[in-house]
Amino acid sequence: MKKIIKTTTGTYHGTVDHDHIDFLGIPFGYGRRFKRAEEFSLAKFGPNEVNKLHYAVHHGVQPMQDEALDQSNKLRFGENCLNLDICTPDIEGKYPIVIELYGGGFLRGGNHSKQMSWLDHESVVHVVPNYRLGLFGWSKVEGGDTNVGLSDQLMAIQWVIDNAKSFGGDIKNLTLVGLSAGAKSVSALMSSNSNLLDWVKKIIVFSGGVQTIRDLQTAKKVTENICRDNNIKSTQDLFNLTDDGLQLVQEHTLGTHISTNWFGPVIDDDLISSDWQDKLIQRVKRTHFKTIISAGTNELGAYRKMNINHLENEVMVDLFGENAGILKQSLIKEPYSKNEFVKMLGMAMYTLPGRRLAELLTQRSDAEVYCNLARVYEGQHGGVIRYLNTPETEINIDYRKNRRNFLNLLRDFIATGKPYVEDIKYEWPLYDNDRLVLELDSDDLKSVSIIGHRYPDDLPWQSYKL
User: What is the DSSP string of 76-117?
Assistant: First the structure.
């Protein structure tokens, strides 16, 4: 089995693992403070570097995050973290390509810890690029660029398109997949002005939609609030801090806040326009990309351990800002229990945005959309991915067959765009006027109608607003 690939950013030697070949830490760009990604070039390091063989067997530099401040951590963290990992069945093959964008609230994550590890065992090329996080990738700083993290993701996708043949990928069969912030990134990319996304044939979004696309004013206020909290005179002064210093400033303000929505893609009328919904519809009409949208039944169930006053007065404001009152008034009626309030928070954060994205795509185009209502692991955030990643031997024997069926649906969608399981003659229903979704339980898989689950039409698309 050949283990050497020649790419636009160098020649790399991989390693065999479980009948696949892994290439780790391949650079695709440069990350400069608060600036959009620049293409990586070995020529900058001298003429001999271009044809030199590099061993891609160790994880590359990971994005700056709170883990970077732990001196005992053996991983390398830094601002210049733009590298990607590839897992391919055969570099001489022609397999569907799946690019995974990791989640973590735009604050944590990296390709050192794959969220979709189940993809490494499939007949696909699995690519996981790094992108910058928090202030490094999603802030609005005077003298800096907007949508820096989004530019990292775009450059990684461009690298994959340019080099697909070298690692056995079929560029005509490209899927984007993400969980949480990764799903929000995928949705924002498809709503962006970049024609690069016209290469994408399918997207799979687990617990995330377009809800973190925010106005420029909100992005600016988040950065200004962090500066004010750290007695920093101007956002421009953030240029002068070290990587660790900037991370410390961010952590000081985040503290015990639930800051999942504080960062994200920005409407800058460059990469993302104020008419992003129209851009999304134009793309699906132009390319006919297909979509799977998944959400849990109780996404934030873990919040039940919190005090109800804390949930109402602090957590909800952390999650939605000025929109907290609007969402609370529209989605829950008094009196309510703490469990009902927690379920409403999960609905507002993940289920509602997913359903609205499905309706936007289907009502304004003939898009093929498949929705999933997940009850596995109590329907909590990331439960579907945990279900997919758990080795079969560790799953209750009564639940294994259903997990295989769900995996087969996803396999078929990635390979052909049609999720169908021959063994049980089950085809995932299209989401249309009947509002049919696939309901996933550990021991059951069926189609159900959620036609009665309707939400007010005038709710804001932007979840977090200041």
Answer: -B-S---EEEEEES-TTS-EEEEEEE--STTTS--TTS-S-G
Q: How far is CA 370 from CA 184, 289, 361, 417, in A?
A: 17, 12, 11, 10
Distance CA 65, CA 67 (A): 5
Instruction: Indicate the pLDDT class of residue 455, thresholds 50, 70 and 90.
Output: confident
Beta bridge partners of 321: 465
How far is the C-alpha of 342 from the C-alpha of 379, rounded, in Å?
13
Question: What is the C-alpha to C-alpha distance for residues 369 and 371, in angstroms, rounded to an integer?
Answer: 7
Task: Return the higher-pLDDT residue of 426 and 132.
Answer: 132
Q: Pairing state of beta strands 290-296 and 202-206?
A: parallel
Q: Looking at the 3D structure of the chain, how many domains does it have?
A: 1
Range of the domain at 69: 63-449
pLDDT in tens, 218-252: 999 999 999 999 999 999 999 999 999 999 999 99
Lowest-confidence region among 70-79, 201-210, 321-330: 70-79
> Would 194 be classed as within a structural domain?
yes
Q: State the Cα–Cα distance between residues 268 and 276, nearest whole angstrom.
A: 11
User: How far apart are the C-alpha atoms of 233 and 88, rounded to whole Å?
Assistant: 49
> What's 220's domain CATH number?
3.40.50.1820
CB 105 within 8 A of CB 259: yes
